[in-house]
Every structure is written in structure tokens, then in C-alpha cells.
Specification:
single chain; about 400 residues; alpha/beta; Aspartate Aminotransferase, domain 1; 7-stranded mixed beta sheet; 3-stranded antiparallel beta sheet; 13 helices; binds 4'-deoxy-4'-aminopyridoxal-5'-phosphate; L-aspartate:2-oxoglutarate aminotransferase activity; pyridoxal phosphate; Aminotransferase; EC 2.6.1.-
Length: about 400
């Protein structure tokens, strides 16, 4: 008899784990690996957030928190939604969880019945499909083609919706492609959804503040207020405020029923979020917001650098994304070749594994995100690392025969 429960049968461990493991082994042997695989900001958490946590601890804010978040934090989140998104959510329509990841997990556990379909624009974050399967749902990938800038085309969305569809996920700016939606593009998606009144929409806006060149972020509940009661707007402090280790995400919806179901799961799945993290999040959300623009300017410079370098590499094709901190180059021009170390490159998995073994650059294969042949580079790292990493990638590709 297997120890693991049946429900784990279709759930994989994080697909990027193999790369992390390989990079660690190399590093343990004294090899300097340039890591372009990590999806987290290389900046520090803002000092005002750290100070707020420290002072909360000294003040004795160390008791069990309310399950859905402290009143002060929910008020700060409500202000954030109004300020950044022009969305009106009362504090009682908000639930706070342990990161964006737990928000999604709770939402799926709260709503998916066996066989319910969840439409996931793909390429997509590795965890979406696994979380859906965990909850008994069926992930349905809808392709966002490179030729369409990796955006979700209304006709492809329409074709993916069935009477069994329970949810549509939206994640623009996107992990792994960096694609973001203009207001017009979002309106076109909303128009399709208006024709499907039984489908809920989860919008994962975690990369909201990471958009470049005056691109304006928008979110679907604001673009189409008629969807307000069917949209779960999700966000968090991980990427915007470089607070990945603090573990705090939140969601809000116009649907009382949906929020009650999510709150119910949230209350059992953990016992509320660390009071110190909540205090830090209030400071981050209510404090000076200049750092968002300052950091976005730095990310933009890095993006432009990576695109410029990789566009010059024969065999790679590199679409310029609007946001997040990823690029997703197409490596189809190298399929069928052999690396200098004698590795046959038949897939993007072969490509990234040969790249890490022979030139010690860690990236992630497109296969992990559901669209091949591509690989993901994260530019949430120093310019020095990016220079070294891009030079090694260029050399690796040039040496192929
Ligand atoms: N959504 C997306 C698209 C992400 O890329 C990530 C982090 N990799 C998350 C959610 C999870 O964020 P959190 O740290 O808030 O759990």
C-alpha cells in the first residue's frame, strides 16, 4: 500500500526542482553557477516593513491572529485596491493567506468539485495546474502563442470554455513570459466572459507593479465592473515589496458566497498569518511607494540588456515582454544540434540541462510552463550576473554544431 494519498497521484513536485538540485550539486563541487532561474526579487525588503514587524513584536502583537487577517491589515489592503486599481472592496470582502500560493490553493479547495474545469492560459506558472489537480479539478491549458505576444486571444479563450468550466485564471504580467494585457486586450477577454455567466475568474496580479515603458497595468474587475461579483482579485507583497520570505498574499471578491467559502477553508488550512508579517505588510502597503517605480526602472534596464544580448544569438528568438522579471526565448533554431560537450539537443529540457552542465548557467525549461521549445530566464538578479549569464548562453549556442 502506498503511503501517499490517492489525491497526490497526479501532482508533481515543482518542475524547476531538478534544475535547482543540479545547480546545487555543481555549486557544492566549487563551481560558480550563474543562477537565472529564481523567481524572486534580489532587492531587500523595505526597511519600514522590517521596522514595523520588529516594533509589533516588542509591543506584544504576538498572539493568535484573526484567521482572515487583522482589521488593520484588511483596511490597508482595501486602501491599496482603491489606490492602485480603483476597486472598492470592503475589509469584510478580503481574506489574507500565507502567500499568493495559499490564496489560490484555498480558492480551489473551496470551490472545485471533481471534474470541474479550470482554464489556464499557457505558458503558466508551474503551480497552477498542480493546485487545481490537488483540489480535484481538471486544468485545461489554453495556448498563448508567441506570435500573439504570449497573450490570451479571445477566440482561443472562447474555444476552451465548456459547460464544465468553473474558473478562468488570468496572470498578466505573466510568469514565465512577462506578457501583460492592455486595457483593450483585457476588455476583449471580459467580453467573452460576459457571455459565460457561470464561470469565475481568478486574476493573479502578483506582478502588477512590474511593468515597463509606461505600460499601464489593468485588472479585469476594474476594466469590466459587470464581472465584479465573479472575479477573485488576488495579489500579495512577495514580488512588489521583495517580501517572498514573509509569506503573505490576499484576495477579494464582490461575491459574498465565494469569500465565505474561501474564508472557511482558510480558517482550517493554517491558523492565520504571522502577526509580525501582517504588521510588516501594513507598512509596505501604506508606506512610501516610490521604491516600486525605482525598482521597476532597474528591472527595465535589465530586461532591455538581456533582450539585446540574446537577440544577437543565432538560433534564439527573444520576444520583448511588457512586465514581470522574465524573458522566454524560443530555442527552436537549435533543435537537432549537438552541444560542444556532445549532448544532442532534441528538447528545451536537453538545452537547459546541457547549458547548466557545460556552461554553469541555471535557467528553466519551457516544458515546465507548458509551452515548448522555450526556456525561462529570470532577470531578478544583478547586472553582473546577467552579463556573465548572457555571455555564457551566447557561447553555448555559438559552439553548437
Ligand atoms: N503567482 C505567480 C504567477 C507567481 O509567479 C508566484 C511566485 N513564483 C506566486 C503566485 C506565489 O507568490 P507568493 O510568494 O505570494 O506565494
Amino acid at each position: 500500500m502506498s503511503v501517499a494519498a490517492e489525491r497526490l497521484k497526479n501532482v508533481s513536485i515543482s518542475a524547476s526542482a531538478a534544475m535547482t538540485q543540479r545547480a546545487r550539486e555543481l555549486a557544492a563541487n566549487g563551481i560558480k553557477v550563474v543562477s537565472l532561474s529564481s523567481g524572486e526579487p534580489d532587492f531587500p525588503t523595505p526597511a519600514n516593513a522590517i521596522e514595523a514587524a520588529y516594533s509589533a513584536a516588542l509591543k506584544g502583537e504576538t498572539k493568535y491572529p484573526p484567521m482572515d487577517g487583522t482589521a488593520a491589515l484588511k483596511a490597508a489592503i482595501s486602501r491599496k485596491f482603491k489606490r492602485d486599481n480603483n476597486l472598492d472592496y470592503d475589509p469584510n470582502q478580503i481574506v489574507v493567506s500565507g502567500g499568493g500560493k495559499q490564496v489560490i490553493f484555498n480558492a480551489m479547495l473551496a470551490t472545485c468539485n471533481p471534474g470541474d474545469e479550470v482554464v489556464i492560459p499557457t505558458p503558466s506558472w508551474v503551480s497552477y495546474a498542480d493546485i487545481v489537480k490537488f483540489a480535484g479539478g481538471v486544468p485545461v491549458a489554453v495556448p498563448c502563442f508567441e506570435q500573439a505576444g504570449f497573450k490570451l486571444r479571445p477566440q482561443d479563450l472562447e474555444a476552451a470554455l465548456t459547460p464544465r468550466t468553473k474558473w478562468l485564471f488570468l496572470n498578466f504580467p505573466n510568469n514565465p513570459t512577462g506578457a501583460a494585457c492592455s486595457r483593450a486586450e483585457m476588455a476583449a477577454i471580459a467580453e467573452v466572459m460576459l457571455r459565460h455567466p457561470d464561470v469565475f475568474i481568478l486574476t493573479d496580479d502578483i506582478y502588477e507593479h512590474l511593468v515597463y515603458d509606461d505600460f499601464e497595468f489593468c485588472t479585469i474587475a476594474e476594466v469590466e465592473p459587470r464581472l465584479h461579483d465573479r472575479v477573485l482579485t488576488m495579489n500579495g507583497v512577495s514580488k512588489a515589496y521583495a517580501m517572498t520570505g514573509w509569506r503573505l498574499g490576499f484576495c477579494a471578491s464582490g461575491s459574498k458566497e465565494l469569500m465565505a467559502a474561501i474564508s472557511n477553508v482558510n480558517g482550517q488550512n493554517g491558523g492565520g498569518i504571522s502577526t509580525l508579517t501582517q504588521a510588516a505588510a501594513i507598512a509596505a502597503l501604506d508606506g512610501p511607494q516610490d521604491l516600486l517605480r525605482e525598482r521597476a526602472a532597474i528591472y527595465r534596464e535589465r530586461r532591455d540588456f538581456v533582450i539585446d544580448k540574446l537577440s544577437q544569438v543565432e538560433g534564439l528568438r527573444c520576444h520583448k515582454p511588457e512586465g514581470a522579471f522574465y524573458v522566454y526565448p524560443n530555442m527552436s533554431g537549435l533543435i537537432g544540434k549537438t552541444s560542444r560537450g556532445g549532448r544532442k539537443i532534441a528538447t528545451d529540457v536537453d538545452f537547459v540541462m546541457a547549458l547548466v552542465d557545460e556552461h554553469h548557467v541555471a535557467t528553466v525549461q519551457g516544458t515546465a510552463y507548458g509551452m515548448s521549445p522555450y526556456f525561462r530566464i529570470s532577470y531578478a538578479t544583478s547586472m553582473e550576473n546577467l552579463e556573465e549569464g548572457c555571455a555564457r548562453i551566447a557561447q553555448f549556442c555559438r559552439d553548437m554544431r
